[in-house]
Amino acid sequence: MELYQDPVNFFMILDRWPQSSIQADDETDESLELLLSQSSETYLLGFVIVNIVGLQHYTGSINGREMVGLVREPLNPHDPNAIKVLNTRTVQVGYIERSAASVLAALIDQNLISVEGIVPNSSRGNRYKIPVQIHIFSHREAFERVKSTISRGGLQLLSNDDASFTLSEAIVVKERKVGREGRSLDEIFKLVDENASKKGALEPLEPPKDVIKSELFVHQKEGLGWLIHRENSGELPPFWEERDGGYLNVLTNYHTKKRPNPLRGGIFADEMGLGKTLTLLSLIAFDKCGVNPSLIDSGGAYNEQFEGIDEGDVKWVVLGNKKGKRGRPIKNDSNSRKKRSTEDTHLDKIAKGKFVGGLERNADVKTTLIVCPPSVFSTWVTQLAEHTIPGRLKVYMYYGERTYEAEELRKYDIVLTTYSTLASEETWSESPIKQIEWWRVILDEAHVIKNVNAQQSRAVTRLETKRRWVVTGTPIQNGSLDLFSLMSFLRFAPFSVKSYWTSLVQRPLAQGNEKGLLRLQVLMATISLRRTKDKGLIGLPPKTIETCFVELSAEERELYDQMENEAKSVVRNYIHADSVARNYSAVLTILLRLRQICTDLALCPSDLKSIFPSTNIEVPLNL
């Protein structure tokens, strides 16, 4: 069997499994399921011709030889086998006819196939239906089972063996292998630097000094200028062109007279340690001061005067205090004008998670929702205290005991919450988070949502907001599929639809077709910014890596060698039986134990032999 190899070295996850698996409990099973589903490469089996029906009920339009998105809809109240059809702008066109959907849905739900669609160039259709070719991809070992199921379902599968195959639209999606190469993160982001160079240096921008008290580094000011530009740019999204009085998506061949909406936001992927948090606080500060980006001069300064605010107007919001009710603010006596004596006191109170300074303002507040893991929650609080003038930003911590009123949250400049908090409210329709259309949503450490099927990923993707930001120094951890979850959150059509992403990017990448890499590079060059410390941005000396070899003790060496030999035998048997994909967790467990032996024998279970399966039954990961 030919094992799956992602262009960004997917198998590196085997070496990182212990770290990768330390996630929220609700993601563990889903992450493993995702890993197993990607364990081997899929190939084009053939295509079936069916109809898209119900066109009269939906507003989406499609053209000849246009790719369409196919989305499984198992919770459809009228048909549990429903497969809806979307155009490039993710507007629904209709549904796959029921007779065909009943056959394909079962195979999709069992992860035996993935499907992509393209409307033939010669299609005329009518008001009620239009033909579509559905291309079916599967693992080689499942080919015969899939063929049999499709045949019994009454569908005619056209494959490579059929003469009509080469005359069809299927040839469009059959990517030719030109070699398999590993793709590094830096290679995928290669055009980001080149794109910035072509447009000239990033324009540095000074933050509002009456909110941000710290001096930014040059690269942070440039990053701030880029963030402002992304939020206010009217440029066409990538892969869209203006043609013949309309607009064309050159990847999917979708035509429209309506100008596509610009993407307000993107991926802020600076390497860890370059001060992304302060740069983002500076972005939020412009909302507070009401600076119109058009008022920013070429020198990066803002030329509008702001009214000073008497520190006596500062009130304090008590959070997590037993005397408060559901985290609601407790206001000081309006006659009290006592100021906090030192900023150290302010920092101390914020660090303890008890107080966050803020102002009562009657004007509309552009509220930013910041979502982050609990581990970096305190980082945001600390950064707010260190870099902002006390009282200038009104912050609410939506965590633990909290308000259930949306109107309460709208009073704040920043609402801080965690992925797990949103996941816990994912099925709660009355959640105040869901009742607000946020001005901006920032996902910090956004690689947390790399599994698009996880509950917390679904929760953040469904948030309504005008601006969407993904912030992470490691946008790709396991493989290029990680980027799909980010596209899903950003709602950048058509890449936010799984079938489009697979057809346009993922499969070409996996098969070594340079089109996939080029598309991904162009996409990243437009919507992302990534700088690394080796560029000398903050004056650090070059990073040096030293590998130190440590000799194992005699006992450790004996145990390691014995287990390594056993492991090789087990894996060899899996490969011989063509069952590596079904026994991934066993392989990962073996690697984990070998690593633990190298660290300390005390980390290993007393009976290491128990991790070796006597049969092909999969071994649980959490032994």
UniProtKB/TrEMBL annotation:
BP term (GO), one: DNA repair
Keywords noted in UniProt: ATP-binding, Helicase, Hydrolase, Metal-binding, Nucleotide-binding, Nucleus, Zinc
Species in which this protein is naturally found: Actinidia rufa
Domain Helicase ATP-binding: 257-493
Name recorded for this polypeptide: DNA/RNA helicase protein
Entry annotated with the keyword Hydrolase: yes
SMART domains: DEXDc, HIRAN
Ranges of biased composition (kind: Basic and acidic residues): 330-343
Record has Iron-sulfur as a keyword: no
A cellular component annotation (GO) from this entry: nucleus
Organism taxonomic ancestry: Eukaryota, Viridiplantae, Streptophyta, Embryophyta, Tracheophyta
Gene Ontology molecular function: any one: ATP binding
One protein family per Pfam: HIRAN
Residue ranges, annotated region (Disordered): 324-343
Superkingdom assignment: Eukaryota
Localization in the cell: Nucleus
